[in-house]
Structure formats: C-alpha cells, structure tokens
Amino acid sequence: MSISEQPAAEQVSGERPGWPILQQPRGFVVYLGLLVLAVLFLVGASAALTTPTISDVATFAALMLCAAVSVEGVRRLGQPRGISHDLLGAWWFPVVMLLPPVYALLAPIPVFVVLQTRVRWAWVHRRVFNACSVALCGFLASVLWHGAHAGDPIAGLGGAPGSSSSLLSVGGVVLAVLCCTAFTGFNTAMIAFAARVSGGPERGRSSALDREAVMVDTVELCVGITVAILAQLSLLLLAIAVPPILLLQRSLLYQQLQTAARTDPKTGLLNAPTWEQAAVNEISRARSTQGRTAVLIIDIDHFKRVNDSHGHLFGDQVLLGVATTIAQELRQADLLGRFGGEEFVVLLPGADTEEAGRAAERLRARVGGMEIAVDGVPVAITVSVGVAVVGDHGNDLVELLTAADLALYRAKETGRNRVCLPAGRPGLGGQIPGPREGHLPDTSEGHLPGSTPAPRSSGEVS
C-alpha cells in the first residue's frame, strides 16, 4: 500500500510562524478537512447500524496487535520519506472482510499512533491524512464486501452476518480480490489527488503506479487475503502469519531506504554521488567503444531571488517542478541528477555536440514554459545550460564537468536563459576541437537556429 509522508509541500524553513497545517497550500487544507469530516460522519452513521459483539472486538484487537508487532519489528529501520510502500494492508484487508465497516474506519488509529510514537515523528497533519485515506478506502471496500453479501450496499453498512465464511469458497476469494483491489485503487487515487491539490507536480501518482509498486501491492493483497482466511479459521493462527510478514516488511523497507540513500529527498532525482558514479561508468564505456556522450549542467536563473522573494517553500516547489519537467523530456537511458543547490546534471549517452545542443535547447524551452504561481500570480522560471561532450571538451567526468561549468558561466554572463558551449579547454590553447566554438549555432543569442529564448512575463524573477 502507498502512504505519503509528504502529501503536501515540505516545510523547510522556520521563518513563517503558525501551525504547520496552515502553511500548506489551501487546496490541501480544504481536502484534508473534508476527509476528516467524512470519516467522522461515517463513523457515527455506521456505528449506529452496527451491533458490537465480543467476537468482533476480539478479532479487531488481535489484528491490531499483530499490526503493532509488525510496526515495532521494523522500528529500527525507520521509515522512508515521501511516497513509500508497506505491507500493513496485510492487516487492513482482514478487517475489511471479517468485521463490519465501522472497524475499517477505526483500524488506522492505533497503527498510526504506534508509527508516530515508536518509528518516526512526523507532522500530525501528514499522519492524519494517511489515517483518513486508509480509513475511507477500507470503509468503501468493506461496504462493497458486505453489501455484495447482503444484496444491498446500505444494508452492508452494518455488516453482513456470515459474510466472512465465504472466504473459504472460490467465489468468496474472487470477491475478496476485487474488494482489496478497490481498496488499493482508492488509496492510490487519494494520494495522487493530494499531490495535485498541494500545488506541485504529481510525483505521487507516478511513484504509486510504477512496476515495483504494483508488485508490492499484489503481494500485499495476496498476504492480506491469506491472513483473513487464517483468522477466519482461528485467531490463534495469526501467530504463524506475523513472522513471514515481518520478514517481508523488513526486506521492503530496507530496499526503500537503500533507494532513499541514492536519491535527493526534495526532487526524487539521483543525488550527486550516485549520479557521478553512474556517469563515470557510462563515460568509460563510451571511451572504450569510441562512442559519444554529453554532459549538461542546468542552473535555475536567479534562484536565490526566488527564495528571497517567495520563501523556501515555494523554492522547493520550483526545484521539484524543474526536476519533473526535465525528467519528462529525457530518454530512458539518460541520467538526471541534482548536483546541489539549484543545479541539475544530465548525462546523454550517444549524443554528439549537435544532438546535445538540441536536447539542451529543448529542456531550456520546456522549463521556460512551466506554469508556477504564487497567490495566483504566475512566476516565470528560466534556466541556463552548459554543454560539454566527450572528446571535444574532456575525456573524463572531471574534465567534462569543468568544461560544462565554464559553459554555464558563459551563459550566465551573456544574459541567462540560454545554452552555451565552453569557450575552450585547458591545455588546448583556449580552442574547442571541432568546428564549433563558444555558443551553439547563432552565437549572438546563444540559442539554436529557429528558436528564441522563452519570453519573459511580467511576473518573471530575473
């Protein structure tokens, strides 16, 4: 299951006083408020239709105890930031099928309290969002399950007596798969919508729909249904389900934490050390095969002024927006990383100077066309790009980065919002090997033929 430790923009500065929830985008605050109200209303409505029994309470307590043990078992590993995946659905799904819907609304409370107090402290509004998302998804899936057995969705609000016994039949298992799939789909959609109303790019949606996430969700669904069948047979059988689930959860978290160590937390791109290692390997391969490879350094123009004028929170949205825009324009084989501050680096395997120039110009134009607003007022963002190519401007990563950095400096000095080549390379008398010198074609403006720098709007920071 996907959970979001960052459903809204990250709070990165203590300069703005007040409650953290009030510093989130208005759309997310309204969305979260509606979710909380919906959960409270449904708890009241479904509780009025539910007759509690000792058996139901015992089943709920046993499942929540197992979930708490699973959380405690991975406490030392911590929890990844951003959109992450876990196997807690192995305990949510049995609640959906074995108990009336009101229990699905209550199940996230003890588990997220344990996460908050024992694993990692997080902003309360993030925990509340995750709990509400799980509660509402579980409630909807439970209503589908019980409604199918009662023959009436409204009647299913109070639970359908005897519905849990159908898990021992093929038809019941098929229905369980459909309901659990609906649970996962609802959860994914809610997180994607939270990312959308937060005002930033929908990184949550792409993270939640990648191949690995689908595989994790499939495993979680299978394990959850298996646990539900065991619990239906006897609550004592839950004891044999905890160890394998705990092992799977530890393996999953370890992999996610390893990935987190290789990526930049604000943009999700490769961090500098990881990008450099991958770039060194690719450049070595290109040299051994006499191939071409290009390096781009992309710098956001006047980024300090953006931070000073609009705050670091907006600055982080700009970083994420630029990163997402660049990533969407690159090939699968290209390597994109955050180099530090407002700089990004791109490795283009197989690209010569002309191809690298076209790619750099395309990236510059796409970023210039981004739409990012502050209080409804659009703020134009532009980038400058320095280009260096293996063989023309250097033979290893250090030389290429130095050359690309010199080219970036030229772009900044000649007006920004343009693409440049280095003026020369140390040891070659200040000349670039090959027919091109200085800027890419059309040296008067530093851009490719047939294109012009993105027009500056009145809201542009420059």
UniProtKB/TrEMBL annotation:
SUPFAM superfamilies: Nucleotide cyclase. Residues 422-462 are annotated as: Disordered. Residues 291-424 form the GGDEF domain. PROSITE patterns: GGDEF. CDD domains: GGDEF. Residues 436-445 have a biased composition (Basic and acidic residues). GO terms for cellular component: plasma membrane. One of its GO terms (molecular function) is diguanylate cyclase activity. It holds the Pfam family GGDEF. The chain crosses the membrane at residues 28-47, 91-115, 127-148, 168-197, 218-242. InterPro entries: Diguanylate_Cyclase (IPR050469), GGDEF_dom (IPR000160), Nucleotide_cyclase (IPR029787), Rev_trsase/Diguanyl_cyclase (IPR043128). This is GGDEF domain-containing protein. It comes from Nocardiopsis kunsanensis.
